[in-house]
UniProtKB/TrEMBL annotation:
Classification lineage: Archaea, Methanobacteriati, Methanobacteriota, Stenosarchaea group, Halobacteria
Gene3D superfamilies per the UniProt record, alphabetical: 3.30.1110.20, 3.40.1190.20
PROSITE patterns: ADPK (PS51255)
One example GO MF annotation: metal ion binding
This protein's name: Phosphofructokinase
């Protein structure tokens, strides 16, 4: 434990004042616990737990269909809803609590909480949303004046007059709605899609190279926030514009780009992201469901991609994950794809960063994940001591041993670290305080530490 604490202190020290750009999607999450009080607010679906939900969600019946389907499958999901349904939920539902949401919101908050120096851009930055950040004064916001960027404290940016709200319906295994019993602890997200989230950031787009001059890396997400109603010229034009912004960002300096993937239900939207956005990444972050969707879209065989309610954990599933990640990395031409699974974290790479930097990032991410799951939040570096109280997953170690045999490489203390594949066991919390945002926490924490270690910010060599 003493060695682990020493490593953790070194990792936290390495992140001090690390400059990173984070964009584009932030919102307020309205959290609703699925219980007996929710049913009367919704219209009963025709086949609870069986019928797949439509996209977008246009009624409370559609919403009930989506929630019960997620409860039955045991896999968290997110589907866009119409503006009309978003308005209806805000007028008829009272959340149990509210918190900062969206990949960009969650990752920015983590960056600031761990002592890094985030520069953040998002749309509709309202006073209500700004109040959800734990350390708003530690976050800078880019303002363009006469073609020059000036960075100001987050809440000094001109506030929007309304807020993007996502509704998050959380449930535990055994919870019931319309006769459907939840098979796992997870959640369903009904996501709003305001027209402002069109991947155009006004004058910032033309000056984004100045942001590139000020940062070492970028955590980008929100490319799935488009809808046909709000993008008249089509997904391709919006994503081609976003691609050019990423390229312009890099002209300002050496900027590694992490893209956090979200599997939208719109086939055309996913195809556009795959063609125009993902190939621009240095590293892509996915969970097991997103990996399956990506693999299917790419024409790869993703059967056996992960455990289900009917199939308990099998350590050999890591082999399928490894093969799919390797094939996707080659198909997209990116340097690294990282997977956050329940029992382990896995990265397949090719000349992205030194493997030891990636290993340290994954191990750090496991501590962050356990802390977030146990406490429900990470607001200061000292919180991470909680994550050390949870040991590495025994099932994760078994899976990594199986992968090591497959690639004919040794395992060191449960971790596999080679120039092309890195894996470490997760630290699993059996009774999590919440499930929303843990994947974003994993991706952000691993990427931050990889950057810090690779640039030797802590004074040690990799």
């Amino acid at each position: 434990m003493d060695d682990a604490r020493t490593r953790l202190r070194a990792d936290i020290a390495a992140l001090a004042d690390l400059p990173v750009f984070v964009a584009y999607n932030a919102n307020v999450d309205a959290i609703v616990r699925v219980d007996d009080g929710l049913g009367p607010v919704l219209e009963r679906p025709s086949e609870p737990g069986v019928r797949s939900p439509p996209s977008p969600l246009a009624s409370t019946r559609d919403l009930a269909t989506a929630i019960t389907h997620t409860m039955a499958t045991g896999q968290g999901d997110e589907i866009a809803m119409t503006d009309a349904l978003a308005d209806r939920l805000e007028s008829s539902l009272s959340p149990d609590r509210q918190q900062l949401g969206g990949q960009t919101g969650i990752m920015t908050d983590l960056c600031a909480s761990l002592g890094a120096a985030p520069i953040t851009y998002t749309y509709l930055l309202s006073e209500r949303q700004c109040s959800q950040f734990d350390h708003p004064d530690a976050v800078r916001y880019p303002i363009v004046e006469d073609g020059q960027i000036r960075f100001v404290p987050l809440c000094e940016a001109e506030p929007a007059d309304r807020t993007k709200i996502n509704w998050v319906f959380e449930f535990r295994a055994g919870d019931e709605l319309f006769g459907v019993r939840a098979t796992e602890d997870t959640r369903f997200i009904a996501a709003s899609r305001p027209p402002e989230f069109d991947l155009h950031a006004g004058t910032l787009d033309d000056a984004i190279d100045q942001v590139g001059e000020a940062v070492d890396g970028a955590l980008l997400a929100g490319y799935h926030n488009l809808t046909p109603e709000h993008v008249e010229a089509g997904y391709e034009d919006a994503h081609r514009h976003a691609r050019e912004v990423i390229r312009r960002l890099r002209t300002g300096g050496t900027v590694d780009v992490h893209i956090e993937y979200v599997a939208a239900h719109d086939d055309d939207l996913r195809a556009s992201i795959y063609e125009w956005i993902l190939p621009e990444a240095n590293v892509i972050g996915v969970d097991t469901r997103e990996l399956a969707v990506l693999s299917d879209d790419a024409g790869l065989d993703s059967r056996g991609n992960g455990p289900t309610a009917e199939t308990p954990f099998d350590e050999t599933e890591i082999l399928a994950h490894y093969r799919l990640l390797d094939a996707l990395r080659a198909d997209l031409g990116v340097a690294c794809i990282r997977l956050h699974a329940m029992e382990y974290h896995l990265a397949v790479l090719d000349s992205y960063l030194p493997p030891d930097a990636v290993r340290r990032g994954l191990e750090f991410a496991a501590i962050n994940a356990a802390t977030k799951a146990s406490r429900g939040e990470i607001t200061a570096p000292s919180d991470l001591r909680t994550g050390l109280e949870y040991g590495p997953s025994a099932q994760g170690r078994e899976a990594i041993e199986r992968l090591a045999e497959y690639v004919d490489e040794p395992v060191d203390d449960g971790t596999l670290c080679t120039p092309t594949v890195v894996a470490c066991p997760n630290r699993v919390v059996d009774d999590p305080a919440g499930t929303v945002g843990i994947g974003d926490i994993v991706s952000a924490s691993s990427f931050l530490l990889e950057l810090a270690v690779a640039t030797d910010r802590d004074g040690t060599s990799t």
